[in-house]
Amino acid sequence: MAKKTVTKEQQEGQTLVEDNFDPYKVIRFPLSTEKSIRQIEFDNKLAFVVHPRSTKRDIKRAVEQLFKVKVIQVNVQNFINGQKRAYVKLSAGNVASDVSADLGLI
């Protein structure tokens, strides 16, 4: 019987997406800095601190499930201390300031 080989892409492809996907494990809390508030007002983007092993697909799925909005783009920023931030751009039909008001940011 041949030995099963696992490629590097398959190892890195292991994400938080499982049968029992929990969006609350992906998104830790919303970010409320000057930059994130400015992005809410002008760029229609929301900022979150997320789980370090979450992928862009996980983040998109979690935001769409939690806030019932359409996500266009997800950018992530990793820090040396292990923190990971996600900047999520919403579609034109969804207003980021409405979602942030529901979260209590504005």
3D structure, described in words:
The chain is built from 5 helices and 4 strands, in the order ααβαβαββα. With 106 residues, the chain is α+β, with helices and mostly antiparallel strands. The protein has a single domain (20-103), classed as RRM (RNA recognition motif) domain (Alpha-Beta Plaits, 2-Layer Sandwich), CATH 3.30.70.330. Strands 1-2-4-3 form a 4-stranded antiparallel beta sheet. The chain is elongated, with a radius of gyration of 16 Å.
In short:
The chain is α+β, with helices and mostly antiparallel strands. The chain has five helices and four strands; from the N terminus they run H-H-E-H-E-H-E-E-H.
Mean pLDDT: 90
Point out poorly predicted stretches. Answer: none
Assign an overall shape.
Answer: elongated
Estimate what percentage of residues fall within beta strands.
15-25%
The CATH topology name reads: Alpha-Beta Plaits
- Write the H/E string, N to C: HHEHEHEEH
The portion of residues assigned to helices is 25-40%
CATH architecture: 2-Layer Sandwich
Number of structural domains: 1
Using brief descriptors, characterize the structure shown.
4-stranded antiparallel beta sheet, 24% strand, 36% helix, 106 residues, alpha+beta, 5 helices, Alpha-Beta Plaits
